[in-house]
From TrEMBL:
GO molecular function (one): ATP binding
Organism whose genome encodes this protein: Silicimonas algicola
SUPFAM superfamilies linked: Nucleotidylyl transferase
Family of this protein: Belongs to the class-I aminoacyl-tRNA synthetase family.
InterPro entries xref list: aa-tRNA-synth_I_CS (IPR001412), Glu/Gln-tRNA-synth (IPR000924), Glu/Gln-tRNA-synth_Ib_cat-dom (IPR020058), GluQ/Sye (IPR049940), Rossmann-like_a/b/a_fold (IPR014729)
UniProt keyword Calcium, yes or no: no
A GO CC annotation given for this chain: cytosol
Keyword line: Aminoacyl-tRNA synthetase, ATP-binding, Ligase, Metal-binding, Nucleotide-binding, Protein biosynthesis, Zinc
Pfam families reported for this sequence: tRNA-synt_1c (PF00749)
Protein's name in the database: Glutamyl-Q tRNA(Asp) synthetase
Span of domain Glutamyl/glutaminyl-tRNA synthetase class Ib catalytic: 3-105, 185-283
Gene Ontology biological-process entries: glutamyl-tRNA aminoacylation
Length: 286
């Protein structure tokens, strides 16, 4: 099978050294195997995405010497696909509408004994408030509300696995076994459609990786736990499972992971200060 990797930035700020590392790794992996490198613009968050950040992504990546397939896919142009997928999950009774806000969730999750609520890759594990109210078999999927996956219904008894060719945060590598029975308690009913977006990161990324024929997902270790959600979604949607390569995160001198607001470490600021693409490779340890 021809190897296809991708880099999937959100145009919500300037790319920094961490993005450069991720993009170069994915690009070089594809080139070394004679495969394809795909760039996907993850702009479902319309309130934070900006055309100027998208333009800067193209500029930064070209300057780094990377080339990618065209036309570039933008998630904001594929909302109909995500909607179709949600509709099929709704028809199978795997989703429920949720009207809780952050405060409702925090209160309900801490309520039983005032203990610290469990936290998963998406924050506090949803306490189930709206799931318990859901009306089964409703053919009409609501449009102006969040939709959550009913995790307990979505999982199968069989252990699910994925292949990790990089490392998770605890050094996890090779065949990773996911024990589905633990997922409702560890991850819970994740949001698959946010009220303001009509989709979510998890849903869009799984649909697009499959639709774009991605064979190897290269991304930061911060998304290792989210991969468990993606594996569940791939299984219930009968989508192929790519291999995963989670890589170390680039940190600042204090050991803090770089964020979009760290403008001082943006690729653009290094370029403006006279750095070369080779300097950037060296800075990220490549
Ligand atoms: N769009 C995500 C980000 O910018 C990346 C998602 C992924 O690689 O799966 O962090």
């Amino acid at each position: 099978m021809r190897l296809r990797t991708r880099f999937a930035p959100s145009p919500t700020g300037p790319l920094h050294l961490g993005h450069a590392y991720s993009a170069i790794l994915a690009h070089d992996m594809a080139r070394a195997a004679g495969g394809d490198f795909v760039l996907r613009i993850e702009d479902i968050d319309r309130s934070r995405s900006r055309a100027e950040w998208e333009d800067l992504i193209y500029k930064d990546l070209s300057w780094l010497g990377l080339s990618w397939e065209t036309p570039v896919v933008r998630q904001s142009e594929r909302l109909h696909l995500y909607r179709q997928t949600l509709q099929s999950l709704w028809n199978e009774d795997l989703l429920f509408a949720c009207t809780c806000n952050r405060r409702d969730i925090l209160e309900a999750a801490s309520a039983p004994n005032e203990s610290e609520p469990a936290v998963g890759p998406d924050g506090i594990v949803y306490p189930g408030t709206c799931r318990d109210r859901k009306s089964f078999g409703d053919p009409v999927m609501p449009t102006n509300t969040a939709l959550r996956l009913d995790m307990a219904k979505a999982i199968d008894d069989r252990p699910a696995t994925f292949e990790e060719t990089g490392r998770g945060p605890e050094g996890e590598s090779g065949r990773i076994d996911i024990h589905p029975i633990a997922l409702p308690g560890e991850i819970g009913d994740v949001v698959l459609a946010r009220r303001d977006m009509g989709t979510s990161y998890h849903l869009s990324v799984v649909v697009d990786d499959a639709d774009q024929g991605i064979t190897h997902v290269v991304r930061g270790q911060d998304l290792f736990e989210a991969t468990k959600i993606h594996v569940v979604l791939q299984d219930i949607l009968s989508l192929p499972r790519p291999e995963y390569h989670h890589h170390r995160l680039i940190r600042d001198e204090a050991g803090k992971r770089l964020a979009k607001r760290d403008d001082a470490r943006s690729i653009q600021s290094y370029r403006d200060a006279g750095a070369t693409p080779d300097d950037i490779r060296r800075m990220v340890g490549l």
